[in-house]
Amino acid sequence: MSRWKIVEHFKQKWKPVLRLGNAKYSKPLSKSVARVRAEAARLGIAIEIVERAHGTRTAADAAIAVGCLVDQIIKSIVFRGKGGGEHFLFLTAGNNQVDAAKAAFLCGVPLEKADADSIRAATGFVIGGVAPLGHIQPIRTWMDPHILDFAMIWAAAGTPNHVFSVDPRALRAALGPTLADFTV
């Protein structure tokens, strides 16, 4: 491998966080990321979307990628009513897990974990990229109170490679999720 190819290989492998809109790295946004950005603008929420070449599919991966605590990563967990009913979104801090029984009690119906196809149909996002906003249809949402312990949080921005930072109080004010204890 030539010296030039080796340098280019490492530039790609260890690429820094790409801030979208930076002229040096500008490229067309995916429809999902564009939808998140447009919805944030419509709601008046200031967000900063960044891209990671190696993805941010897990809360731990995302925390490492952006340099924050795992609990500052917001997981968007989607359940649906048993038998293919309505979908429900639970926003929780990265180290927390959703307690299915508590979630079902809040929703008022028995729940099952939603599969990848139904999540995409309900939200417009793939697993690992489900944002708390910008869904293709309305979805009832609950928020883990622990999220509000931080001045800044990070959430998926429409793809497994994109995340955005936001003030959690601004996100709550804009989305109006129900604040509830639904974690283990």
Helix-strand pattern: HEHEHEEHEHEEEHE
Percent of sequence in beta strands:
15-25%
| Cα Rg | 17 Å
Uncertain ranges:
1-25
> Globular, elongated, flat, extended or rod-shaped: what is the shape?
globular
Structural class: alpha/beta
Mean pLDDT: 87
Distance between the termini: 51 Å
Helix content: 25-40%
Determine the number of helices (DSSP H or I, runs of at least 4 residues).
6
Q: How would you sum up the major sheet?
A: 9 strands, mixed
Please count the beta strands (DSSP E, at least 2 residues each): 9
Report on this structure.
This protein has 184 residues and is α/β, with parallel strands linked by helices. It is built from 6 helices and 9 strands; from the N terminus they run αβαβαββαβαβββαβ. The N and C termini lie far apart (51 Å).
Short characterization:
By secondary structure, this protein is an alpha/beta fold.
What topology does this entry show?
Layout: H1 3-13, E1 18-19, H2 31-43, E2 48-51, H3 59-66, E3 73-81, E4 87-93, H4 100-107, E5 111-113, H5 116-123, E6 140-143, E7 153-156, E8 162-166, H6 168-175, E9 178-179
Parallel strand pairs: 3-7, 4-6, 6-9
Antiparallel strand pairs: 1-2, 2-8, 3-4, 3-5, 7-8
